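hey so i finally got around to running both of the ones u sent me last week. sorry it took forever, my laptop kept dying halfway thru and i had to restart like 3 times lol. anyway pasting them below in the order u listed, first the sequence line then the structure token line for each. didnt double check formatting much so if smth looks off just lmk and ill redo it

first one:
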Amino acid sequence: MSLLISGSILLLLLGLPLGTPRSFSVDYKSDCFRKDGEEFRYISGSIHYSRIPRAYWKDRLLKMYMAGLNAIQTYIPWNYHEESSGHYSFSGDRDLEYFLQLANDIGLLVILRPGPYICGEWDMGGLPAWLLRKKDIVLRSSDPDYIAAVDKWMGKLLPMIKPYLYQNGGPIITVQVENEYGSYFACDYNYLRHLTKLFRSHLGDEVVLFTTDGAGLGYLRCGSIQGLYATVDFGPSSNVTAAFQAQRHAEPHGPLVNSEFYTGWLDNWGSPHAVVSSAIVAKSLNEILAVRANVNLYMFIGGTNFGYWNGANSPYRPQPTSYDYDAPLSEAGDLTEKYFAIREVIKMYRKIPEGPSPPTTPKYAYETVLMKRLQTVSDALEKLSFSGPVKSTYPLTFVELNQAFGYVLYRTAMPVDCSTPTPLSSPLNGVHDRAYVSVDGVAVGILERNNVITINVTGKAGSQLDILVENMGRINYGKDINDFKGLVSNLTLGTETLHDWTMYSLSVDEAVSQGLLNETNPTDAPLSLPAFYQGSFIIPDGIPDLPQDTYIKLPNWRKGQVWINGFNVGRYWPTRGPQVTLFVPANILSTAAPNNVTVLELEEAPCSSEPCRVEFTATPILNAAVQSVH
């Protein structure tokens, strides 16, 4: 009885008559949203649960709530939950339902963006690489193979999120269908109609479905369609009036909505770190709120592209591990000047929660760690290639080898004597994305997509030619998202086309986490073979509040990948910049056992004159000088 009474009191406190169902809708007459019958405006912020360890979801969401936001927006990356076809993962850092429930418990509504395509500077825009098994598949279109895969995925996902819709007692007020479709070449209205019908069949007729496109008529022409509420996105340098006039062409009535108001911008390797001033963001946000518009700040916290999840722009320019975005909350969830500037603006338009935000998490500079050299990639082939060698006349792509991420070693024999330097070339620019070349166990150079398509090599006929190809992240935006990896076309040596390849798919993450790699004697060379290095450090368990977050720094190392306690922290490339340090969240560290650091250095480790070392620092470096290759 007491539960019934408290529920009744709650409804009365909310101003709802007893038995009134919850509702969220578009009011075309009053140009607003209505929540439970009352006029409603959201001030939201983007947070991607896939870029933040689960251990920190609550901290980040609370900070967003305390900034005055009443909603959050998040993407669901399909490839994060279905890495291989038919195998789903929704646990641990992928526990979407826990994330939605947490937002609900904190008092934040949710704007959900389930794709199937999301962009988001995420590998292949969230689409799984296994879709490319059909080579000529037209992604984001009515292509029957693509549609069949989408229908199956949404048949798994959408019933899972239906209980979390607002009218069902959950936090989700609106659901986006696809993403910025007006920026894609296909302009396939039947595809959008199919998705609309699909989403309605799983989620019902009450939920508000919407689209997002650039604030220009050219974008809205192919991106908006009847039955989906059209919204726009634009940044602080845009003319607010003109941007919303574009939305009004598609939606003459209804709420004004900026679904992506850019608080910063993305980074690329080899370009300076993006910085947008707090004053400019605050001024533009004020203009948006002054015209009664709804707004989502993209990003409110960017987070980290752990592992291999970063995307890339076209022409090919991959994004770094950090997705800091110069957002109001830093990559590590720190409160910034921008956070407080935005909170001051929001304060002018709605009452914000009383009390302080959760503080910035403390950072700790652990000791310098000495690194011992383990095996080279070629020495460790049997341990790294769980599936064993695959032979083919011509090279196979990652997808053909049933591999999504990481590295594949391609091996063949030189067909002719090359006593003088002879060009090894990728005439069709088929190295996707970076290849580390060696002849008879001696490193000879690097081929790089778009930038270095020829190097000179020497060797005898029959010499072993090894080409370790790194997938640097798939293009996530535009017409080139069908981004095949590996050697996607033949290589030539002088006038000869190379053939008779042996290929090894490398399960590097599994080998590292299982501790399969051994120590060996190093050899000195100006350009060294891709090799593994390992060290460890102890965090004393007698010190309160440890472990704490930290950043790893690799002074004089060139390019590679880092694992800590088997967790793939991400890519480092300080020689290209702008990112130098990698964020290491406290939840992957241990006070109960030594913490293992494993590095795969692809180019050259700084061990010739002194022992290799890595450092931990309490301060991130995301804006170092860059070495551009363009």
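and the second one:
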Amino acid sequence: MSVPPPASRPASTTSPAIPDHHPPVSDVPGLIAPLSRGRSTRLIGQVVVELGFAKEADVERAVMHARESGRLTGRVLIEDGVLTPQQLARVLAERFGIERVDLAIFKIDTDLARLVDPSFVRRYDAIPVGQDGDGQLLLAMADPANMLAIDDVTMITGMAVRPVVAAYDDIHRLSVKLGNDLPDLSDEGGDAGDGEMDLTAPANEVTDLGADDQAPIIKLVNSVLKRAIRRGASDIHFDPSSEDMHVVYRVDGMLDQAVQIPRRMSVGVVSRLKVMASLDIAERRTPQDGRVSLLIDGHEIDLRIVTLPTVYGEAVVARILDSSSAPVGLEQIGMLEDDRLDVEEAMARPYGGVLVTGPTGSGKSTTLYSCLDHVNNGTRTIVTVEDPVEYRMDGVKQMAINAKAKMTFAGGLKAIMRADPDIIMVGEIRDGETAHIAVEAALTGHLVLSTLHTRDAPNAVSRLLDMGVEPFLLSSAIDCVVAQRLARKLCDDCKKPVTVAASVMRDHGFDVEGDVEIFNPGGCDRCNQTGYRGRVGIFEVLVLDEELRSLILRRSSADEIAAVAVRKGMKRLREDGQRKVLLGLTSPEEVLRVTAAG
């Protein structure tokens, strides 16, 4: 459609108030009317509970968190795992009595959407998406009460503006899709890759990537980092090859090709990343690792950067840690009620050990932080030693490992023992010395939380015995072991129900009595056509009782411990995965993929 040119003066310079009633929009897929018209006197939290999206206690906790931090209640409800962005959009639509637009199916007028630049979208969480029957500009907004955004878009376009509610992640996904926010990599002119470019940047302070930098390499790196974080990536791989450098994001545990960087620019990109992480740009023969803090879209993000010398040049891997994200409860990460009650009972004890095990990237740290959040009620002193500090928590004394200063897990744990702790969290038990100190702490009146790298819960016992911990100490110190994996979660917007015969499920290792209804992945814009969005935990919870402790004293094998634990009710990883499949949270293929070694 043709876009009306911006007027020299807008028709009205006053902010259009959110009207109590809009004329109905007929036959417009994706534009959804609220249940009731007109602005409601109900608070956001009340609407959340009335719509059945969350329990009142969870909402009240998030509202208090919002008040204490001075942030918007809606955004905190999402960060605390109470709501999804799509649920918040529906809540706001009901709260203000205006239409909600589902950008996944709404036909976007791209000409109108491009009337505002990406900085406008980031600043206001808003983007034009079309026109209604009266010629008013439909402005999709995450916060429809933001009159300043309506004012600005009225000035920019010269059009009468009609706000509609949209999920903020859909708004930014649309902006990225339309915006070409990566610089043109085909430009052969200039000095994008030469060694004389200014690559200096603050090395030991938070770098703000919100402002565009004109240097091509810096702009390229900033764009790659920002796009990865907005996509929800956990890692960024810069992989050199015989021709170009491939940038690959890890999203929901799976690799996703992002962009190719011309070989002539790859050295400059690696140098830029090294400078940001305070690494030696002249050393290209040995691996290096460092960290950098970035400010992106108002969030402080920590990057752990590792360089690896390869036959085609240096590869770089950046692990993304959002230190400003609040930890969520065990229920939000996917732990079902029976397992959650077992873990919470272990954490309620004044002393003992709770271990979380699994391979790298299985979500162990997130589970530990969820446990800490559960016990962080101000009645007990909590001290942690971590590598690195992934989430910052009020009310918790957190220490970071520093190899250069000879600050190790064992050294930090020794210091903690002299600091009057009640609860101790050790990021990882890596060696015999750390294992011995942790076990002694659990036996001397402290609750100890930590992680191990083992394939299942019973093998955690064998691992600690191999580290030299005596069986009589171990059997008394450990109360609960949680093994876990992360499976991709089915996208709620496009998952498809299907009935599967019991024989087919049993052939794939699932124990079911009859035919079952499950969900298969679909594909939509919100999940990048993968059918999956987010991840859910799959757990195996081993609670030690007297019979199991006696097996440890006899140095019984992990298989013997597992057999007794299963007889007493422990669910193996595959079995818990089956429960998540029947609940429609994930697919059988995902469970088989992540529990293949378990």
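quick thing i noticed on the 2nd:
Residues 216-230 form the longest helix (15 residues).
anyway thats it, ttyl
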